[in-house]
Design brief:
The chain is an alpha+beta fold. The chain has helices at residues 17-22, 24-37, 77-86, 103-106; strands at residues 7-15, 41-57, 60-72, 90-97. Helix content is 27%, strand content 37%.
Length: 127
């Protein structure tokens, strides 16, 4: 990889579910457009999951996650964060520096994990 000053970032954006479910392509385009507006090169962007939230955000009990991989100048990250705060359809966001990590490791399809309940043996006391 050439040393052009750009770094690889992962962005996870939580969008309003009504918007993302009605217009999935529009939700992805919103995130891509926001990133490209600030000089980022989008490598991959897709809807990752739509699920129930742990707590309500702006009166929404569910949220849609958009996962993006992009390369950008580290000085532009604060501008991207500012625009995320100002965009009403983006409820939360997380940007992480992912230099040196293969894309395949973080672009797996999200599958909710179902925990198995194991009954403890009768002779084991509760702690």
């Amino acid at each position: 990889m050439p040393d052009d000053g750009l770094r690889l970032y992962e962005g996870l954006f939580l969008l309003e579910p009504n918007f993302a479910n009605k217009d999935e392509a529009g939700a992805i385009a919103l995130v891509q457009g926001l990133l490209e507006k600030h000089g980022a090169t989008v490598i991959r962007c897709e809807k990752w999951a739509e699920q129930k939230l742990a707590y309500e955000i702006r009166k929404n009990k569910r949220g849609a996650y958009i996962l993006a991989a992009f390369r950008v100048d580290p000085l532009k990250v604060s501008e991207i964060e500012l625009e995320c705060r100002l965009t009403e359809r983006i409820m939360r966001y997380l940007l992480l520096n992912r230099n040196g990590i293969a894309l395949e490791k973080w672009f797996k399809r999200y599958e909710p994990v179902k925990l198995e309940r194991r009954d403890r043996p009768a002779d084991v006391p509760m702690a």
